[in-house]
Amino acid sequence: MKPVAIIHTPFKEKFGIPRQPGVVSCASGVIELIVPFNRPEMLKGLDAFSHLWLVWQFHAVADGQWKPMVRPPRLGGNRRVGVFASRSPFRPNPIGLSVVKLDAIEECRIKVSGVDLMDATPILDIKPYVPYSDCIPEATQGFAKGAPAVSLHVSFSEIAESQLQQHENADELRRLIVGVLQIDPRPAYKRHQSGEYGFRLHDFDLHWSVSKDQQVEVLGLD
Q1: How many structural domains compose the chain?
Q2: What CATH number does residue 10 fall under?
Q3: Range of the domain at 96
Q4: Is the preceding omega at residue 72 within 30 degrees of 0, hence cis?
Q5: How far apart are CA 82 and CA 70, in angstroms?
Q6: Would strands 28-33 and 5-8 be described as parallel, antiparallel, or unpaired?
Q7: Residues 46/128, Cβ–Cβ less than 8 Å
Q8: Distance between CA 165 and CA 3 in Å, rounded?
Q9: What is the number of H-type helices and E-type strands within the chain?
Q10: Is residue 139 assigned to a domain?
Q11: What is the pLDDT of residues 24-81, one digit of tens each?
Q12: Could you report the per-residue pLDDT of 109-156, keeping only the tens digit for each?
């Protein structure tokens, strides 16, 4: 298969990416069609749909690293399930599937939100989301009982607040940072521990700490 596009997102590394699409609704991205698929007519009629299916490749996973059983974060990282009962990136074929909100189409670029993809992820296919067939209200969720709850309160240090205000669209950036951190991006085995963490977001390193009472403070946007 050949990628038809790549997606540009704020997430420059795996740590910090929302674990499912739509969990952080303000996490935005831009899908850019690539040669020879960068033809506007390929998107004709797509603007009539509110949401899209993206079929994509886990390009940051090394070949041959799949595992028959995995430890899902929703089970605390302690219990194992079969890889086909999970959404682990470590799969025989490293293919991901996400539903995202379609915000705008500009020539060969599609603006979307609610993304859970790393920057520069190859997009293998784009399909319209059709509610009457794709939404099954009576479906069961196994061990993934509902969306992850907001578990952490997020505040900004004086330094981080000052750095935030230097960015264009500071309010939008604040919503993204709070949205990502309040659902706790840490590995399951590190939750309920205090410490300092960081990951690359947009063009800066986001540094933050978690206190013993599970309060998050953003330390800097360097």
Answers
A1: 2
A2: 2.40.30.70
A3: 5-134
A4: no
A5: 6
A6: antiparallel
A7: yes
A8: 37
A9: 3, 12
A10: no
A11: 999 999 999 999 999 999 999 999 999 999 999 999 887 778 889 998 877 777 789 9
A12: 999 999 999 999 999 999 999 999 999 999 888 877 777 777 899 999
